[in-house]
């Protein structure tokens, strides 16, 4: 491609919308342009990179015999409703109605259409295992778009589904998918972290997600599901429960200072409205509720919010700040497991201005016990009991073992060797490709611009004629360009009427791995050869260009 013919609008200044370097560089390098909040156009260079990333992924998927399909963007309402499998993300989906009043969800990454495809084609164990994937645009009404294409309303996504006749084989297959993911990230020069639950992240100080890491044993887990070692059970004798006056002390901190102690001697009760039911969650006073764990426990969450004041007053028969488990009007009481090991703690009395002291689980109240707390760096590793740290991170992709839950709901069955009908075991793997692209830039750039990995670079070589008015330079540059192009190399020729300095700046910004400059030394038959990730500039003979470029591109 000749730069003089491209609509490449490189910018000297970054837009001041985000502190994220990848977003600034992608706008400056003319890769993306904003349409509206969370919505972007891919410009020619961006389209090329996305194409290269897609091809890289397709090659990896082929290695595990996965077959590419294209799934309709329209998902009939009844396909989701019949399986009663509505997901929490349903509020983020776009819906439409056609002229015959038939309702559809549009462009969302539901599992059902993929399972429906296989369910209709596969009848016997002889046809299993089978793997399908798609690379398609997904759309989602992301309420808080952020960081450019990292968190947007429309994105390219890999969705892979693997179907087995046996749960054990299915679990073993997950290793192959992990290898595929690792290979993709490695080729994209991304330093990824894999968690125990098979979510993939990169560490990033601005990341809104968090990964719990243990240096001692290597435990890594998404904070949303990470657990910790539980404290040992307190062995103090249970004292009689007692109602005490605590006027105007509504928060745990106020209580702690009233009793001259620390928040972990209290237990707080947080009231939610989930699926229009009142759900109270109890955690130790110094803890926060992990809402993901609560949602996972409740299952099929359609609506989720903190209870409004009116609901709290109804449930507690008191003003805000005095909620507790005893005589609470709620549909479900979730109790963090830690509380069952505490002795003689204090809770709200569901009476304005009062708390109960010396409360004990089981003797004074019961509920559904589970892990509902957010882990902090004070906690200990659930595997080895050593210290943990919590890193900010950005999600890259995930592998989920759906086992037979979906196939049972959707009646996705096959006949086994004995002619018996059985549900298929399903694995789902996904990567948000737009985000992957942004994170490649995030981890591969310097102060001058993007440093594309060879595997996905929009152009492998950029050829620059230093002086536009110098006919010999222009002609030589064009010859080199044509020669490399004929070898199947993706090459960009900067033939614009611009100063050499401008061309070098743009070349660094665009980030092609190899730069060839045709300048003064052309009289000796020499050109400049420079790699984007290295400051060395080498003079090489024009006759050696072909060999030099090919050996560089094929070098690992
Ligand atoms: Zn550990």
From TrEMBL:
What's a Gene Ontology MF term here?
A: ATP binding
Q: Which residues form a coiled coil?
A: none
Q: Where is the Aminoacyl-tRNA synthetase class II (G/ P/ S/T) domain?
A: 97-444
Looking at the record, the residues that make up the Anticodon-binding domain are 461-551
Q: Which SUPFAM superfamilies match?
A: Class II aaRS ABD-related, Class II aaRS and biotin synthetases, YbaK/ProRS associated domain
Q: Which GO terms describe its cellular component?
A: cytosol
Catalytic activity, EC: 6.1.1.15
Q: Does the keyword Nucleotide-binding apply?
A: yes
User: Domain YbaK/aminoacyl-tRNA synthetase-associated: where?
Assistant: 246-360
Key word Flavoprotein present in the record? no
CDD domains referenced in this protein's UniProt entry, alphabetically: ProRS-INS, ProRS_anticodon_short
Q: Which GO terms describe its biological process?
A: prolyl-tRNA aminoacylation
Which UniProt key words apply to this protein?
Aminoacyl-tRNA synthetase, ATP-binding, Cytoplasm, Ligase, Nucleotide-binding, Protein biosynthesis
**What is the protein named?**
Proline--tRNA ligase
Which organism is this protein's natural source?
Clostridium carboxidivorans P7
Which classification does the entry list for the species? Bacteria, Bacillati, Bacillota, Clostridia, Eubacteriales
